[in-house]
Amino acid sequence: MGTLLRKLGDLVAERYTLLGGMHDEIQELKDELESMTACFRDVAGIGDDDMHKEQMRTWMKQVREIGYDAEDCIDIFLHHLSKHSGDNRSLGRHIHKIFNFLRTLKVRLKLVTEIQSIKSRAQKVSERRLRYKLDAMDMKDNMPSSSSYVDVDRRLPALHGDESPLVGMAENKQKVIDLLNKDDMKLRVISVVGIGGLGKTTLAMAVLNSREEDRNQIPSGQPNILIHAGQPNIQIRAVVPVSRTYDLRALLQYTVRELHRRPIGQGEDPLIKDIGSWDIPKLIQRSREHLVDKRYLVIIDDVWHSTAWEQLKVAFPDNGKGSRIVVTTRSDEVATNCSSSNGDIYKMEALTEADSKMLLFHTVFGSETIPSTYQHLLTSKLEDVCNVVFKKSGGLPLAIVSIGGMLTQRKNESVDNWENVIQRIPSELQKGKMLDGMRRILSLSYNDLPYHLKACFLYLSVFPEDHEIRRGPLVRRWEAEGFINEVYELSLEEISTDYFNGFVSRSVVAPEQLSGGGEVRSFKVHDIMLDIITAKSTQENLMSTLGNHQHSTVGHDKIRRVSIQPGSRDNYFSRGNLRHVRSLTIMSSREKPKDITFSNLKLLRVLDLEGCSWSLSDKDWKEICKLTLLRYLSIRRTGNERLPSKLGKLTGLVTLDVRQTKVTHFPKSITQLQNLQHLLAGEYVHYTRTHSVKHFAYRKEVVKIPTGLSKMKALKRISFVDVKGKGIEALHEVAKLSQLTRLCAMQTDPNASWGNFSDTLSDMNNSLRYLSVMQDEANCNIPEQLNFLHCIRSPPVLLQSLHLLGRINSLPQWFQSLSKLSSLSLRHNYLETGMVDVLGRLPCLISLKLYDGSYTGTELSFTSHQFPMLKQLVIDNLPNLVKLSFDSGAPANLERLTLFLPRGSAASVLGIRKLLKLRAVELFGINDGHVVNTVMEEVNSHPNMPIRVTRDDQPPPPSS
């Protein structure tokens, strides 16, 4: 509504004086909708759907539909005005004004008619509300008030991989391991069953990741899941998520890929080279052949129906080597049908009162007791509050974490305020239906969100279960949908990032990937929470989700947004009821849905085809280029190889994402996209599952940008500029883009210079926040490749992230002025020991990644008073390194350490035990037993018991 009201204001502004007598009509509609919006906001925070009377829900639906129709009407009108605003200027200003009025007379008359109709509808809806005595404020007076939380610091503790959800579940983990360790060489299937939110998947993953360090927990003489009666260690460990809806062929294909997963950096197994063309029987055969002589442990996660297990189990042979399968499910029937015997079912139980209390404190304070700094909470009432939490949560970990997420916002307040939060939990939680109780607690998490976050949160229903939601694409979609409005001096990107972090801080989503500074880059939505979101968004007609039959579109006059998810069927729609769709998402489909014709989607703002294996036809592109309201277009990870020549007709486009495609050129018409802000191309390769080590995919051809880049004044982000050939001209044009905050420039020609790129960077010193400068890695031996950086006359002092790839004789002097730099990665720079002193003085550096060839010294020592804010350190393939030491516990704030040492390296690593805030250690590529033992000894004796990841992976050589 905020976006709509601003557009209505524009219509009565001076530049549309030719609307004549319509001013009063539009003003009246604007006033009516403002009043409706105020009432809408009042009732939106009332609480659970049960609290809304049927009349109230009907009224809210009618208000929403009026808003949608009004915005569609205005957008079409404004597009027609802008389409002709630049025509016939040669006729003279006065004549042009008259000519333009005549050309747009039809659309103006249509606007008059539609505005009158919408205003009449709005008035009737208001009258109807009064006629049936529907008073939102009377309802609200009888309900607890909705709180407004202040967002916490977006930089989260580095808890990725933490098993904190297993607080109080150590016994559960051991019992599952005991079931797996039964002395039986036959294939056995163990089921872990329980309602959503108990932590079944977390428990299964903890069992899967059990390693040698767990052996001391096994009674002497009892076999464990690593060594079994003289049999070899488990050779294959894999996780196969099933979920409620699935495509059998896709599921088997995923399974085979997981079973054939090779060490990171070695590429795909040649045995599955053509897997994309295999049918189901061949996929099953390949799985069985691969496993026939191996001992394996596989997690089959989230099985909803016995049919899924019956279809999948034939891929796992009983090879007589003591292999095991763990199935997690919410259904007792599924658990019975999957398990080898009744004794192979582990039914998860809720937490005890003591364990619930520990988990609550861990969620709120990061420790299992209340720190002394929160003395104001240590009152006699606290025990009563904890008892209420336990009773109302039923001991469900997810419920406790959800409540704890809200209490985190209150930890600086009194216990009385904690009680107010607890009192708003519906009393029905005390009933025996634990699933209902879970849903109500998770609904409370939604209801407690600030008003501006509600639509953004319901929008998450666009994604299917188990989908990893990345921050960048999500917030750009929010912007395109109009869910985010600029506030004071904050940009849309800054506001949307705060929205994203608002979900994470309230524990209503599960973080997946963290940035170097601890920011959440991606998350997943708990399954039960996603059920609630999907039901609510469908009820409010915010999203129509296909692929989950539980949430149909029946009952809505007009469909506004559609998400076609894996497992959906064709023929859900007729062409007619898609006319009002403004957002279309097709998730990872193998072929284009038959019912989708882009020419019918004239109101489309968002088109996301990420992960679809089919390519858009010439006809599709022709139709898409006529979608004049389109703001977001993503063909990421699709089979498309080109973009249409008429792409420039999409003048409203804000985001264009062609990453991980075979597109190699942008059409000349792209420079007509005056509103484009995000131009995304290229591809990164991740060498670790935690994404702590990544590299630009140089083997893929870089997309070329045509001349005329300077016309695109709205650009904020360019994921590349190729300096080769005409790229030099492009760099000159880049300097004219005053809004540009992110730039990735690369040089693919070893004999070409960077020209006057130093001048370009000097001209952009007040706008750049993120910068990558990369020489083609195959030519990294040419000396002084990046020495032009020394010539920058005005350094980008506002820079927050910097990546340099290429030789440079030393760090430029202006490095010392980068007071806001928080992330730095260096590769093939061949810098000497003085580098550490310069970087150690940067006051805000949080993440430092020293990749292959970045440092030539034999010793790397971190001493006190250096790197005061550093939280993440990556040491990747420094061949000359002999000694890595952390003296006196420096860096004092280091939380995550990644070591990627070359094979055969004898480098000593000292002082890890002194890093008091260390939470995670990753070891890759280390095959020297002494080095591993020394490092692991320090890690295992560390008081924080940091997460350990040890893998014998090695990234490919630079030339590959």
Using only CA atoms, what is the Rg? 30 Å
Helix percent band: 25-40%
Number of strands: 30
Question: Quick one: biggest sheet?
Answer: 17 strands, parallel
| Form type | globular
Discrete helix count: 26
Structural class by secondary-structure content: alpha/beta
Unreliable spans are 47-51, 139-163, 212-223, 226-231, 426-435, 953-960
How much of the sequence is in beta strands?
A: 5-15%
Q: Report the span from N to C terminus.
A: 52 Å
Q: For the residues shown, what is the average pLDDT?
A: 78
Keywords: Coiled coil, Leucine-rich repeat, Nucleotide-binding, Plant defense, Repeat
GO biological process, one term: plant-type hypersensitive response
GO molecular function: ADP binding
Family: Belongs to the disease resistance NB-LRR family.
Textual characterization of the structure:
The protein has 960 residues and is an alpha/beta fold. Among the domains are: 2-141, no CATH class; 159-168 and 353-464 and 473-528, no CATH class; 173-347, Rossmann fold, CATH 3.40.50; 543-665, Leucine-rich repeat, LRR (right-handed beta-alpha superhelix). Helices cover 33% and strands 13% of the residues. The chain has a 17-stranded parallel β-sheet, sandwiched between helices. Helix 11 links the parallel strand 3 and strand 4 (324-329). The longest helix has 31 residues, at 54-84. Residues 47-51, 139-163, 212-223, 226-231, 426-435 and 953-960 have low confidence and may be disordered.
